[in-house]
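Moderator note: this is an archived Q&A kept for reference. The question asked for a predicted structure of one protein chain; the sequence and the answer are reproduced below.
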Amino acid sequence: MGHDGTWSPDEQQIVYAKGSELYLVKSNGTDPRKILTADGIPQFLRWSPDGQRLRFTVTDPHGVSRSLWEVSADGANPHSLLPGWNTPPAECCGNWTADGRHFVFQSTRQGRTDIWAIGERRGFFKRAAQAPIQLTHGPLNFSRPAPGRDGKKLFALGAEPRGELVRYDSKSKQFLPYLSGISAEGVSFSKDGQWVAYTAYPYGTLWRSKVDGGDRLQLTSVPMRAFLPRWSPDGKRIAFMGAASGKPWQVYVVSSDGGGLQQLTTGENHGDPNWSPDGNTLVFDRLPYLEARGPNSANIYLLDLRTHQVSTLAGSEGQFYSPLWSPDARYITAQTGDSQKQVIFDFGNKRWADLVDMPMAYASWSRDGKYLYFETFLGKEPNFFRIRVNDRKLEKLFSLKGIRQTLGTFGPWSGLAPDDSCLLLREIGSQEIYALDVEFP
């Protein structure tokens, strides 16, 4: 069993991936031997032309970040190829040139993907890679680079990413364009349902407008990337998570009229801000999938906007993230650090309890606070569910199988319209294969 594999240059061995592990096996399929256990899922396995090293892409368990790794062919000295080079890491799909002098790969920064190359130092004591050099600069997103055998061509996928915001219509049982089918994710509505805030895809800029498209205003600009905007109960402010030019994600607040941008957190990666129903407190988290300690780094915090004091929500330390405050202020729901379960905190008895035992993503409270809606693209089958909180009754609403969702900032996003109908971003971009002339130094 395995999900990826490739021949060694001398065709005597195959390296293959099974789950999070890498194995070597003889060319006839005998004598399998484990050489590595990765912290995630290894893919795009590639031997160096001299057969001495392996490079591969590791996708973190949540499917959020991807990084390049290297290990000797015997399993010795596994290490990240470009530690700290891009935060969070978003590199993938590397290939060596035929002469072994360069290694090309894709990297995503500020919503755009380009091809980069690493020059391999020559000499007995000079095995380390040089600093990457950017080979493409748009306007398309270029990915999956494959060097030509003559060293003069570089083949790659060229894509023009675009999404279409759609809403599930329960009568026709179809997804239909919503808000004129704008290319947006993280869509959020004001309490009165008259205003909408969203992140433009793929650029990551924050916008707000009336639901009819009028009074459209851009609230952030590149190089900052914004995500998951949330309206304050009075409609005057919008909280969101943002990452500025390679720095960790932080929580920000901006006036819904523009201006007054304020950063509320510092240090490690923070996100998922949500308002308390009275507007006096923000709940947010430490993002476990972007921290070295993984699920154990999950944490939920409360920020009192009147005193600016930050406290930890009891019992969340090292366990929970992705908090959502219920409209009636009684509960906060969250996910376990490994995203395998949804839990709920009751402010009445100050206790956590299990709510749903299944992998899920992008949960949303219904307007009346009786239901929690979510999708299950992290599980075996993509479906859209809701659960009634008072008696834990789980209801599958419809299947998302066959729906081509856009892989946005953190996977396929989904949310709710003011009438509690499902919203998602459907992929409608174009993708073609290009042959690029290249001159390596």
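Archived answer notes: The chain has no helices and 39 strands.
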